[in-house]
Design brief:
With about 140 residues, the protein is mostly helical. The chain contains four helices and two strands; from the N terminus they run ααββαα.
Length: about 140
């Protein structure tokens, strides 16, 4: 039995086209708005930068003298000298902080002491004496 309340119209195509005149007028209005905004920006930039432009043209800046780069005269020799200093530091005893009692020792001696005594162990921390009671299981209830 057909539904009596079904008053739908049959589907058809769009019968009205786009209003070309309105779309064209909207585009022209947008173009005019952009041109007016651009004109206002040009006038404001000329007004705000006018004094600076005249000053720059009248008094050009003086160039700064070029800085001489700090190149090494003999890089290979300086590297060898630096390396010798570092190796001497690794092979001698000396103070790092005498007031704090911190000294440096030769690397070979440090490795021998490490093998002999091992790495230092951290101090034990206080362990809680609280006991944990296990939760009752299904077997315990039977």
């Amino acid at each position: 039995m057909p539904n009596v309340n079904d008053t739908r119209q049959p589907e058809t195509h769009e019968e009205q086209d786009v209003n070309v005149r309105r779309v064209t007028m909207a585009g022209i209005g947008l173009l005019i708005t952009v041109l007016i905004t651009l004109g206002i920006m040009v006038v404001l930039m000329g007004f705000l930068l006018g004094d600076e432009r005249e000053q720059v043209l009248a008094d050009p800046p003086t160039p700064l003298p070029a800085a001489v780069p700090g190149l090494q005269a003999a890089p290979a020799q300086e590297w060898l000298s630096f390396q010798a200093t570092q190796e001497a530091h690794l092979a001698t005893y000396g103070w790092v902080d005498e007031a704090g009692g911190v000294a440096h020792i030769p690397i070979d001696r440090a490795m021998a002491l490490l093998l002999e005594h091992g790495l230092p162990t951290p101090a034990p921390t206080a362990v809680s004496t609280a006991t944990v009671t296990p939760a009752p299981t299904a077997e315990a209830n039977e």
